[in-house]
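Data card: per-record layout.
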Amino acid sequence: MKKFIFLILSLIYIAAVHPENKGFSRWSFAPEYGYNKFDGDINSGSLQLVPASVQQISYGANLEYGITPVWGLSLDYYYLPLTGKNNLNTINISTNLYTSDFNATLNFTRLIFPQTKSRFYVNGALGLGYAYYTFNKSPLTKGADLKADQAYSIPITVSLEYNVSKSLAFGTKVQYRAFNKDNLEGVSSMNFKGNSNDFVGSGTMFLRYKFNSGKKDHLRNIKTEVYSPNDGLVQSKLNAEKISKLDQEISKLEEIVKYQNRLLDSMNVYLANVGSTLNSVSVQDVSGAEMNASMNASFVSNKESNNNGNKGRSKVSVDDIPAIYFDFNKTELDENALIAISRIAYKLKSDPSLYIEVKGYCDKLDTESQNNLLSQRRSDRVKAELVNYWKIPYNHIITNGNTNNIAESRLKSRPNRRCDVFFVKL
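The structure for this 426-residue chain is written out next.
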């Protein structure tokens, strides 16, 4: 028992001090407790029957090092007390067997289903073991029977394991050991001649502790692709990320090109109007009080000023500024609308004292509130274009969505779907 405790402590120490690598935890330790059944033979004379074997309490421990999520190596140690008697009840055997095994382990579940999220795993192991055993026979038999011996074994293991948490797993295990000796019962002089070697089967329950699993991923908890990603999938992911970044850069370049095109449109308007309309704009100054009143209510267009006979109001020629038209129930700006806005922007930039009112209209095919809302959205869209792309001061533009001046028509008409721009000079 002292040797068993010493070995367990040694295994725990090795697991604790061994450095982890590749960023994964690999060590796990599992104490076990269960029963064993001895499969041996004793020559009982003429009957030549196998002895009766009694189940005995067994215990041990297993230390495993994971190489990958599928493969690993393990070292275990077990105490297996063997008891039985021959069929004539003339000999009772009692053997204390201590065995240690070095195994290659395999996770069948992870091998077959590498991406499974199941907490249940079926594991197997195959190894080579060394055993030391002592005998206690009653009554003593004739002949020079051994009092102690040693043997080699081949253990085969199958286990079912359930991951309770990242650190703990609970499971059951079945082992079958084949020994190279035929005298585990300690009565070699009475063994069947030419019979097969002895075997020991055992069934145990265990609780596995996975070292450092709280700090880093343990190989028993991760998918295979996490440990060894598919190169093709990794490259595809990297390519997708690069393409996404390129798309973002292209979008930025498209915005820059779009802005530069609008500047070119403005320049074309300038070149087309140099010495003509833009140079012939005539204005009359208005007082600051009158401008403030106009800003608080609404701007009065050149035509409104003429119709109402207002005098002293600034007069600005707008014949070269067409209305801005929209598609049915839309607020998007088409090419003609952008050109019109570029002309408005140039006029505003050429004279910083100019202010404008943008009035929006729409077809009268909906309720008054909906019509007003759509008209306002159209005027706001024109203002956003002037402010965001042409850098016109925000407070130089007033928007007004008002359908009251639209003719009472319930038909779709492009002239109704527009924004008019009215200039005032402060």
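Known properties of this structure: Residues 273-425 form a domain with the 60s Ribosomal Protein L30; Chain: A; fold (CATH 3.30.1330.60). The chain has eight helices and 13 strands.

See the next section for split statistics.
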